[in-house]
Amino acid sequence: MINDISGNQILIWGVKALVILLLVVFLFFTFAGFQQARLVNSAVKTKLSGLINLIGILFLISIVVSIFLVTLI
Amino acid sequence: MGIEFERKVSEIFPKSKGGTLSAMQVSPKSFHFGTQNKGETVFLLTRAAAITNFGWIVATILLCILPFIAGSIITGALLFFRIDITDIVTRPLFIPVTLFIYFILVGTYAFSAFTKWYFNIYIVTSERILDYDYVPFGKYKISEASLKNIEDVTQRQIGVFPNIFNYGDIIIQTAGERTQFHFDKTPNPSYLRDKITDLADILKQGKSND
Do B35 and A59 touch (CB under 8 A)? Predict the structure, then answer.
């Protein structure tokens, strides 16, 4: 069965794993940034506060979706 | 100090000015901050001049165009070096997912640059000055000083762009624990310096009359 896996496929899975790892790290930092922005947003209330929170949530969801999409390629 | 103070302040700030995205807002109506005291009025809300956003806006536009330019360059290079990646590129979803991830990264860069500008604010109220120092993914610091403690306000415009676009730094010396406050790259620094000094003088006069 091991003979069925070509070198090209191993390379592809390696790259995929690396991209997923980088996206997870990116997700962590984005989440930390989002929490920080929420903290500032609650300290300073402007007309855009709600919109900024919403955009932050959309970014987080997009990163999670992209991790799943990478596994599908 | 009440009615007389309000009369003098209304002479300094005759009317409300500036929208939500303005770099300088005079008597902003729909703005509140977390530690605002009862009866405390926000007179000035300022952040770095809008022109200081030019760099990241141009960088974002270039980064949005980049995949379309880079795509043809990479294809040309692969053909030149006879590298065959047809197997990878023809996989379903490869190009859409790659572009999706790329634009998330670009979007995050633009959004963090925007929030850095938007949340780095300087507030002048009827009681104090506040300096919100925010760096996305980094630090978040708030400093404040009483208007009564202001001793000296200095305006500084160094360089070609600050003079062309009329923005600069305001350095406020206080008698408090933190002796210097820097309001960086604020629009119309002369106006800001003048208003802060006037406001501090009114409060000091009120204090000496009491």
Answer: no
